[in-house]
Amino acid sequence: MRFLPTGEQSDFARTLHGLLGASQVPAAVRAWGAGDHGPGRALWSRLAGTGLFALAADEAYGDLGGLGPLPVELALGFVELGRAGVPGPVVETAAAAVLLSELARLGEDGQEGEDGLAKRFLPGLVAGEAMATLTLPGGSPYAVDADAAAYCFTVSAAGELRLAGGAGAGAGAGEPLRSTDPARRLSRPAADGELLATGPRVLAAAGTALGWARLLTAAQCLGVGEALLASTVQYVKQRTQFGTPIGGFQAVKHRLADTLLALEFARPLVWAAALGLAPWEVAAAKLAAGEAAYAAAMTALQLHGAVGYTEELDLSLWLRKARPLRDAWGSPAACRTAVLRARER
Question: What does the pLDDT look like over 242-274, one tens digit per residue?
Fold first, then answer.
């Protein structure tokens, strides 16, 4: 099994890396946390121009912009999103595209008629004109960034797919809740809303979308951990104590080495999950990447010292993402349970 990206996949990742590096993402993150979505939406549009969100939509909807599903390419892209700290419901929008595509493939398209839901929602999601957030059975009951999303989808345990509120600023979501990450707003969507589809196929499609959300969050965690490690390595080379850079101290080297090992062990799990999409593989990848990102955050905070606590330092933008992403779309306990249950079969 090949775990290295192809040349074309690497080129795509480099394209995203260059775009994000020139996009002043930290300023967009701070604006997003303050309630100003303008810079984030502009960045979102540029990302969509690379075809990023189209990778989650089935190529059967090529006339609507679909290019996928291509989980490996999308995972590579989401590593870059995590490394740059991109704000907004990126995972949720991609998972919503998967949900709609899978629902149409399974032949359950509710009141809209055949392919109706895909034709109604996918063009805007793929083109970057609309953001989506969603809640699924097995995930958190809270929707992410519903105040910025055009669509807030909910799937109940009974198999009802609803649009909570209408298009425009998550009208069906409640008041945003405080989060560890100011640029990650949480709200509980309304239980009612337009019924889009219902039945066992909705639950089947939701299960597929949940796996994708978990995979892409794992990829984001990997990128966040890499960014934290890179910032910390750069800092310990510059920070001196007793007349020498603290990066030369053995204890610091060991801490950084442990962080690097955790990230490198998580990486092949993420690629294996993207290749196979088996639920237990996805859970293992999410567990490893989430824990590695959180460990990288703790290492960064300890080695930066008091300056690591300041909001003015860009490091804080990634520090605040590590814990929420570790728990999003599958806490460590939930992922361990999924792996153990698969082994018992």
Answer: 888 888 899 999 999 999 999 999 999 999 999
